[in-house]
Amino acid sequence: MNYETLQVERRDRIAFVAINRPDKLNALNAQARSELKDLFLALQNDDAVDVVILTGAGEKAFVAGTDIKELTELDEQKGMLFSEDGQAVFNLIENLGKPVIAAVNGYALGGGAELALACHMRIASENAKFGQPEVNLGIIPGYGGTQRLARLVGKGRAMELILTGESIDAPEALRIGLVNKVVAVPELMKAAESMARKIIDKGQVAVRLALMAITATHELSLESGQAFEAELFGRCCASEDFKEGTRAFLEKRKPAFKNK
Ligand code: COA
């Protein structure tokens, strides 16, 4: 399938996806949101893909937000639907069932920061800038940002970012735990791929169940979260990967996982 607003390449079990509207700093318009939904539904069922890396086309931006031009038509009812529609796309990414790494290569503002937050891990290049500038436009983050940002960096820091609308640079994003690592601009895709390869090297049964367990902690109390963890741990123990992984360790060899 060919997309107008996305570049997609599948290589050695990784899907490389770039939001592709560089002349608009990859601002997410309705078409980009719809294509993202379509693509991620396809990736969910694509047995040839274990990890997705999401970035922005061009040198300046990951995604500079939702397309502000489209916001001007919204009233109360349309605004709520607009928010729910974007939330559904980003929830699909978070609940993909396989890891998604954001390679943040410049501005990640508004919906762009929220898109990075919906990914499971974030690697930033040194020139990356993060912010939730929605208050400058008289709105609030509506694609999950008010919920995911506080869960990731804590309430106080989320309050500051969202209420002041100020952007932070990559070292500050690293300091507050918004990103996993910061690398030089030319190293970004290599660093994301290297993280993806480490994950692909493991048994995918365990990887996917771990992803599910960690993602669920957002919604569950500690007690229910631990009950869920125990259930998933049991499921790992029923897998061939588990038998192979433990046997290989004891036989002092590299495991040959079959992802079953
Ligand atoms: N929606 C629509 N268009 C956007 C956009 C957005 N969120 N962000 C950038 N663009 C467009 C600009 O309108 C411009 O288009 P044009 O060439 O047709 O005029 C193009 O992308 C380049 O942006 P420009 O503002 O000229 O680049 P800059 O380097 O001077 O500034 C930013 C970069 C990111 C600081 C600035 O574009 C900006 O503030 N963007 C909006 C960020 C935002 O508020 N996002 C949250 C939206 S909810």
Question: Can you give a write-up of this model?
Answer:
This protein has helices at 30-44, 68-71, 76-94, 111-118, 145-153, 155-164, 170-175, 188-200, 204-216, 222-237, 240-250, and strands at 6-11, 14-19, 51-56, 61-63, 100-104, 107-109, 121-125, 129-131, 168-169, 181-183. Helices cover 48% and strands 16% of the residues. With 260 residues, the chain is α/β, with parallel strands linked by helices. Helix 1 links the parallel strand 2 (14-19) and strand 3 (51-56). It has 2 domains: 6-200, 2-enoyl-CoA Hydratase, Chain A, domain 1 (Alpha-Beta Complex); 204-250, Lyase 2-enoyl-coa Hydratase, Chain  A, domain 2 (Orthogonal Bundle). The strands form 2 sheets. A 6-stranded mixed β-sheet has the order 1-2-3-5-7-10, sandwiched between helices. The longest helix has 19 residues, at 76-94. The chain binds coenzyme A. Residues 24-25, 27, 64-69, 107, 109-111, 133-134, 137 line the site of coenzyme A (COA).
